[in-house]
């Protein structure tokens, strides 16, 4: 099996999934079935609504088809013949794609993805496997047994045809496929662990955040503990930025549409909310990005080369009209808060400024326990020049600079063609969490285009006026998404320095509440987050309740502690107790509650 590339087997697995669905349920309307990370999916409209209980039966049918060892036979057809073939089979979605291919020379599944189904506008290829036929260019395995048995169907989801809510909603059947059973088992084990760490479940259990239907999808509300958590994270970032010479600014959340005409967002960015049409005024928009506001603030003052670099930061919320089917807890939202920074510098200052950011990225993620990472150098797709602004020379120069900087550090990296922002290339940092899952977090974008569009200037040493270069940078990416990842990384059991509730004081009886409150006040005055459980419950139940909420430290206050004896700390996840003298308890706790150096 290992002789066949895993991509080919995953692609063929999607094909076999569609064949299995057709054999089981008859008149299945087929959408598309691409390869995705770790596996594949297929979008279908079946005669019955599929449920999770159907997945084992579908998977078994796939194994039966694989065991038949049918050949994958490719056939090249004219567009007209391919249309007739799929019309005869009642496959309207395939016919729609073919007609697009004939009219436009390409066909888009949705706004982001083109489907490669042939060698040109007049031809398309199909693959036959037994009696099943699908529209696809391949590549596939030669015979179905080469797919192997290291696969599983994992879940169902809804998906609008071609990503538009105006189109029919299909069901998306997901599968995973690996080279060996050992790899499959390891992935399934990781998925089971991921379910336990699901930030949506833990967010509810730990009183961190809430998603209310009345407020709207993708618009999270944060309880006090969740607000503490996000403030702790954001404050840590801000302190480290200010120590490196960054300065905070503030910008509003709406703007006139003309600002986004200048920036190009109105023409190139498709996740903006509709405009607010005001009587006798211009249309206003909720901001999906902060860049244009930063540009206008820079432009409002004269600048000399002596002033540069200008390093401005703003922790502020943006609003993006993400499709409801793509929203997920905190990791995909419609209101996202960015620790956004724009550095205005001279071309000669690019390397030093990006190096400064790279140092901070490494520093911050080490503190949070993310040590394993790689960098994606996201560049433009030369086959889609209409998707970008700026000339080729600027793009080539910008991309070459980023590649050189990452290569010089010796960091593991890859090139992501087509992953650039519409105004410039970027560095995307992919970190692995505690169970090995990759997450794209920090991003650094090098922009030589928006300064031109906004006519930004600085006075050079020779008195001439020149364009600054802008470096866009977010360390966290977005606070909400980072918190979702952080909750899962720690499985909700945050270290003492980060926990929204650091210490719980449990009283043995009412007689000890006064002393417990006094200790809590001293700890709060020292900057610690403390809660007193003075309920009438027995102390054992109070300790269990604190453990259920994953509180790092639980301290019991009874007669001995009230009399000045040592304080016994139950540390979450550890056997035994930590014993700290009462007289040094506050100072020792403050010391242990500091973020890692």
Task: Note down, in words, how this protein is organized.
This protein is of the alpha+beta class and 597 residues long. It folds into three domains: 6-193, Threonyl-trna Synthetase, Chain A, domain 2 (Threonyl-tRNA Synthetase, Chain A, domain 2, 2-Layer Sandwich); 202-489, BirA Bifunctional Protein, domain 2 (2-Layer Sandwich), CATH 3.30.930.10; 503-592, Anticodon-binding domain (Rossmann fold), CATH 3.40.50. It is built from 18 helices and 29 strands. An eight-stranded mixed beta sheet has the order 13-16-17-24-21-20-18-19, with helices on both faces.
Brief summary of the model shown:
The chain is α+β, with helices and mostly antiparallel strands and 597 residues long.
Q: Mind summarizing the main beta sheet?
A: 8 strands, mixed
Q: What's the CATH topology label of the largest domain? A: BirA Bifunctional Protein, domain 2
| Averaged pLDDT | 90
- How many E-type strands? 29
User: Kindly, what is the distance between the CA atoms of the first and last residues, rounded to a whole number of angstroms?
Assistant: 48 Å
Structural class: alpha+beta
CATH superfamily of the largest domain: Bira Bifunctional Protein, Domain 2
The rounded Rg comes to 28 Å
Percent range for β-strand residues: 15-25%
Number of domains: 3
* Principal-axis shape: globular
Oligomeric form of this entry? single chain
Q: In CATH's first tier, which class of the largest domain applies?
A: Alpha Beta
Query: In the CATH classification, which architecture of the largest domain applies?
Result: 2-Layer Sandwich
Strand order of the largest sheet: 13-16-17-24-21-20-18-19
Total number of helices: 18
